[in-house]
């Protein structure tokens, strides 16, 4: 669980710069992906290869048939999916720490904020691309149902061999659940991207000009806040 804890702390660091919809994506990522995969997924797929039984004793036939049935293990594919989705967030955290480490050399605070915003938008775009690519890969590699019977005709099997998959219904339910979570995650990422783009196009309000009879604010003092009157010098007599 140590590696999952590291990913969780890494994603927690991103929420400081995320809008509300981005924080919803973080909740989905932490609860319905990392937590479910670490607690339930390992138990569902841990005996995937050991319980893959074929009705032959031909040496080398079972590993070849298992490789044909599952080119990539379900569990390893899902773990790799989570790692790739976390990579843009990790790069953004590194970039944000780098910007914070040079406060006097990165331009004005507004310039640094704009660079962070652009980099964050790029990380959301990369996350959406990875999400859609893995959803398509999951559909092409495994489909949406784990078949209980796999017919193998690969060499060195001497003839047609029937191989049986352990707990196909439970694995099918898990695959459906994970695919739905992926769709929800992709929709949240698209909504976050739309929110960031719309926010970046909003015109910024110009600074308020002082009203007639109102003195211009001193540097560092917000407009519209009257200056405090200077205290009378000591020894001055009150009239």
**How many angstroms separate the termini?**
77 Å
Helical proportion, percent range: 55-70%
Unreliable spans are: 216-221
Arithmetic mean of pLDDT = 78
Q: How much of the residues is beta strand, in percent?
A: under 5%
Radius of gyration: 29 Å
Work out the number of β strands.
3
State the strand order across the main sheet: 1-3-2
Count of individual helical segments:
6
Main sheet attributes: strand count, strand direction, barrel closure: 3 strands, antiparallel
Order of H and E elements? HHEHHHEEH
Structural class: mainly alpha
Gross morphology is elongated
Write up what this structure looks like.
- This protein is mostly helical.
- It has 6 helices and 3 strands, in the order ααβαααββα.
- It has helices at 2-14, 20-45, 61-69, 74-100, 109-142, 168-201, and strands spanning 53-54, 149-152, 161-164.
- It has a 3-stranded antiparallel β-sheet with strand order 1-3-2, covered by helices on one side.
- β2 and β3 form a beta hairpin.
- α2 (20-45) runs antiparallel to α4 (74-100) and α5 (109-142) runs antiparallel to α6 (168-201).
- The longest helix has 34 residues, at 109-142.
- The radius of gyration is 29 Å and the shape is elongated.
- Mean pLDDT is 78; it is low at 216-221.
């Amino acid at each position: 669980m140590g590696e999952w804890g590291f990913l969780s702390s890494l994603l927690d660091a991103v929420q400081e710069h995320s809008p509300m919809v981005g924080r919803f994506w973080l909740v989905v990522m932490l609860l319905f992906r990392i937590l479910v995969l670490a607690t339930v997924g390992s138990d569902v797929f841990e005996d995937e290869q050991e319980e893959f039984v074929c009705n032959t004793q031909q040496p080398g036939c079972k590993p070849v048939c298992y490789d044909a049935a599952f080119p990539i293990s379900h569990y390893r594919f899902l773990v790799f999916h989570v790692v790739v989705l976390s990579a843009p967030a990790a790069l953004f955290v590194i970039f944000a720490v780098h910007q914070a480490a040079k406060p006097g050399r990165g331009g004005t605070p507004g310039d640094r904020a704009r660079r962070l915003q652009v980099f964050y938008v790029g990380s959301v775009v990369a996350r959406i691309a990875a999400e859609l690519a893995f959803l398509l890969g999951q559909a092409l590699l495994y489909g949406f149902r784990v078949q209980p019977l796999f017919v193998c005709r690969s060499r060195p099997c001497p003839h047609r061999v029937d191989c049986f998959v352990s707990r196909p219904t439970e694995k099918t339910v898990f695959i459906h659940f994970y695919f739905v979570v992926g769709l929800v995650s992709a929709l949240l990422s698209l909504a976050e991207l739309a929110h960031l783009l719309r926010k970046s196009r909003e015109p910024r309000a110009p600074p308020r000009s002082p009203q007639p009879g109102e003195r211009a604010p001193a540097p560092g003092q917000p407009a519209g806040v009257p200056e405090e009157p200077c205290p009378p010098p000591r020894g001055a007599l009150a009239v």
